[in-house]
Amino acid sequence: MPAILGTGEHRYRVVENFAKLPDGWQLTDVASVAVDSHDRVYVFNRGAHPMVVLDREGNFLRSFGEGLFSRAHGLHIDADDNLYCTDDGDHTVRKCTTDGKVLLTIGIPKKPTPFMSGEPFHRCTHTALSPKGEIYVSDGYGNARVHKFTPDGKLIKSWGEPGTDPGQFNIVHNIATDSDGWVYVADRENHRVQVFNGEGKYETQWNNLHRPCALCCCGGGKSPTFVIGELGPGLAVNRKVPNLGPRLSIVDAQGKRIARLGGEEGPGVASGKFLAPHGIALDSKGDIYVGEVGVTDWKTSFPDEEMPAAVRATRCLQKLERVQE
What we know:
- This is NHL repeat-containing protein.
- NHL repeats lie at residues 128-152, 160-199.
- InterPro entries: 6-blade_b-propeller_TolB-like, NHL_repeat.
- It holds the Pfam family NHL.
- Keywords: Glycoprotein, Repeat, Signal.
- The protein is mainly beta.
- The protein has one domain: Neuraminidase (6 Propeller).
- It is built from two helices and 27 strands.
- The strands form seven sheets. It has a five-stranded antiparallel β-sheet with strand order 1-2-27-26-25, with no helix packed on it. A four-stranded antiparallel β-sheet has the order 3-4-5-6, with no helix packed on it. Strands 7-8-9-10 form a four-stranded antiparallel β-sheet, with no helix packed on it.
């Protein structure tokens, strides 16, 4: 029987063997996912075919990005079905059509700015849009900044610096916005999500999270909800400790937890377990798609175990189907 995660109105059934790929294809790490207005699922991955497109049943439609992307990291899709693809391997954000035509490139491919210089980009991680179409970029591994650009890619402002105080970051890993223009930043190694206004003014933070990695705003309107993917332990000293994830948490607009999916007994490949949630998207039915970097994270979680072949093939993409009451 498929595993059921969550409680009450937030119950999800794990869809076994969701992705149906052409023979011989592998996704390896799925860094991020997005769903367009037709419920097509875009799987931004680190395999030979960087963007794999599936229908909501997991059937293969097409791929693109071969020879274009260096290392998939973040993916966002706007109301017009434009894809914003963040590549931390070549330090760029590319705006693309759903068939892979590049409309805009921000950043200079293969030319990062100096480490922790604050200038865009050094291993940027994700994007989000303001209600006016301005582009926010989290940046990332080699910087501790959020950058704000005009819709055509001109830098407006930046904020953030390394540290643990409000407005400082320790791996600014993901970013989301809501319809009111608030900006939510997954400050991963500070174990929090920070909330800013559209100009970068710190407002509040959400705590009681463990290495928040993926961040998805859903529901819209005045009461959005958020699905947060939390990584499990990253250090050997707490590798076997329960209740630290990896898991998904669903929170309201004030950061109060509504539900939690999985993570009580650590990572795993069994149904109902996660490896390393890294990207999250929802479709029109409220089903959740989870991209995981299980290949990269395997040695951290399972240093003495051989990685199953399924992890490299398709296991780094999961679909959780909402259980209707």
